[in-house]
Structures are given as C-alpha cells and as structure tokens.
Write a structure and sequence with these properties.
Structural class: mainly beta
Number of strands: 15
Helix content: 10-25%
CATH topology of the largest domain: Thrombin, subunit H
Oligomer: single chain
CATH superfamily of the largest domain: predicted glycosyltransferase like domains
Distance between the termini: 25 Å
CATH class of the largest domain: Mainly Beta
Number of helices: 2
Strand order of the largest sheet: 1-2-3-8-7-6
Strand content: over 45%
C-alpha cells in the first residue's frame, strides 16, 4: 500500500473525484486547495452545470491523482462543506491509498474515430490507456518508430461534455490483420505511445478507461 508522502501532492493538483449514487458511480473533476497532514484535505467543491454538486457530510468519495508515473487512488469521507461564496470542502485524511504504475497501465476497449496527420477518420482507436492506444486503419499510418499527430474526441461522464485531445505519438508496432472475409483488403493495427500529455488530459483519459471498464463489468 502506498503512503501519502509517495504522492508528492501539490496545491492546485487536478483531481478526479468519484461518488457512489446507488448502483451508479458519478465522476467529477476538482483541484486541491491544501491539506493538514494526518488531519484533512481541502478541495474545491466540484461544479456541474454551473452549480456546486449535491453532496452530504459523511459521504465516501474516491480521489484519483496522477503523480509522476503512478495513478494513486485515495478513499476519503466528507467532513465539512463550505458553501457560498467559496464552495470548498474538507475531506478526511486518506488512510487507504492504492497505486498503479502507468507503464503497466490498464487498457479499455473503445471505438473512437481518430484523425491522423490531419486526415479525418483515418482510423479507429480500438483500445486505450493513459499512455497509449491501438489504432485500426485500412492502410499503414506510417513507419515503425515514426512520429504522427493524432486527435480524437470522447464524452466526459457524467455530463457527456465532449473532450478533445491533440497529441503527438510514436508508432511502436504495426501489424497486418487477417481478413475475416475472402478477398477483403487487409487492415492494420498500430500500437502508439502518447507524448507528454497534459495532466488534465491524462485525468480525462483515466476517467474514460475506468468508465469503459465499468460498462464491461
């Protein structure tokens, strides 16, 4: 189990916050205002449709934080809620902290049209993690170890607001796929590695991965 010091958490860090609502998990984004070691965390109250979310003292929340090459998951409870005009809350200091190394990051099955080097719908992202993706296309998108520019969109839960990511990638693998239909043209699978994604984009991708996994579970 990881410790709080392992996270090296900084004021202003972008956080993903999950709240259980019956059988459904609601995902929000917020940021860290500060903390008192071994006592409590201070975070901004997440906003949805221009209003602070409805949450009660005592509710359990799960925070996910990207730090270095690890994703940390913290379990906390709401201690105090401060409303207008500042809208922030105190959370219990986390004692249950889990970590996952990004280099062994979990992947999720998706079906996202992707633009490659300015060509719209050049292929489809078939699976994705916070570090890379698999792109299926009708033709090879480049040479092995060649760089490319890709962009794609996906919905952010629970509001379904569209997120857009532009990033450069390195093509790490190219594989010709066998066709299931006779005389059908071959297709190609590409393993690509993302370059230096912004922290906010990494957090949104992490949410996409968890949401996709929840749909399959």
């Amino acid at each position: 189990m990881a410790t709080f010091k392992d996270i090296n958490l900084q004021v202003g860090a972008r956080l993903q916050m999950a709240v259980q609502n019956g059988a459904k998990q609601l995902i929000y984004y917020t940021e860290l205002i500060g903390y008192v070691d071994k006592d409590y965390l201070i975070i901004k109250t997440p906003v949805e449709n221009g209003l602070s979310i409805q949450i009660q003292v005592g509710e359990q929340v799960t925070l996910r934080i990207l730090s270095g090459v690890d994703v940390f998951t913290l379990t906390c409870h709401v201690k105090t809620i401060f409303r207008a005009p500042h809208h922030y809350m105190h959370l219990s200091f986390p004692t249950d902290i889990q970590s996952i190394a990004l280099r062994g990051a979990i992947r999720a099955k998706v079906n996202l049209p992707v633009q490659v080097n300015g060509i719209a719908q050049a292929g489809v992202i078939a699976d994705i993690s916070v570090t890379g993706a698999a792109i299926i296309a009708d033709s090879a998108l480049g040479e092995l170890n060649q760089e490319a520019l890709i962009s794609f969109d996906f919905p952010i839960k629970p509001t379904n607001q569209s997120a857009h990511i532009d990033t450069s990638v390195t093509i790490r693998s190219i594989q010709q796929l066998s066709s299931k239909k006779k005389d059908a043209p071959p297709r190609f699978s590409h393993g690509v590695l993302f370059h230096e994604l912004e922290l906010t984009n990494q957090v949104m991708l992490l949410n996409l991965v968890y949401e996709s996994m929840n749909r399959l579970s």
